[in-house]
């Protein structure tokens, strides 16, 4: 059915998808709240100073975790495949050939609709359940359309 790819044709990246900055709003707000409460406790008096320092450190840890969380999940659409990579230390990589994609679904919960985010669920012909779930991305319809177009171009 499908012929092997000629050796002169190389796979190329179409788009790399990462979570939207809105995904990190809880960490930003939580870190800011803890830092402000910690500063208030430090200036309140010596008996609450240790608790204030602990709150400041926790708030800064919330903020420091954002770049790590951002790097922990990415999706890449290439000319031949859709690739999901998750994890920092121990990583999981999932690939599905574009020609094997059975359906593409966009799911937007209420909170996601308010911020313009959504999930794109890709199902494969080889699996009963979904294969790849692209979570909390900006413009999920555009992402789904990019995958559809890449799939159609691959099938042509």
In words, what does this structure look like?
The protein is an alpha+beta fold. It is built from 4 helices and 7 strands. The chain folds into 2 domains: 13-20 and 73-155, PH-domain like (Roll); 24-69. The protein has helices at 25-44, 49-71, 110-115, 140-155; strands at 13-17, 73-78, 81-86, 92-97, 101-107, 117-124, 130-138. The strands form 2 sheets. A 4-stranded antiparallel beta sheet has the order 1-2-3-4. Strands 5-6-7 form a 3-stranded antiparallel beta sheet. Strand 6 and strand 7 (130-138) form a beta hairpin. Helix 1 packs antiparallel against helix 2. It starts with 12 loop residues before the first strand and ends with a helix. The relative contact order is 0.15.
């Amino acid at each position: 059915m499908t012929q092997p790819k000629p050796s002169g044709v190389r796979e190329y990246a179409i788009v790399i998808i990462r979570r939207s900055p809105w995904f990190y709003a809880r960490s930003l707000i939580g870190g800011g709240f803890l830092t402000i409460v910690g500063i208030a406790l430090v200036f309140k008096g010596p008996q609450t100073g240790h608790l204030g320092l602990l709150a400041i450190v926790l708030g800064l840890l919330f903020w420091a975790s954002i770049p790590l969380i951002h790097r922990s999940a990415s999706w890449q659409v290439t000319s031949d495949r859709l690739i999901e990579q998750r994890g920092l230390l121990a990583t999981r990589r999932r690939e599905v050939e574009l020609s094997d994609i059975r359906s593409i679904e966009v799911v937007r919960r209420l909170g996601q609709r308010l911020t313009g985010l959504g999930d794109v669920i890709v199902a494969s012909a080889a699996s009963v359940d979904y294969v790849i779930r692209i979570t909390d991305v900006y413009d999920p319809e555009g992402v789904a359309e990019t995958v559809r177009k890449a799939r159609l171009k691959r099938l042509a």
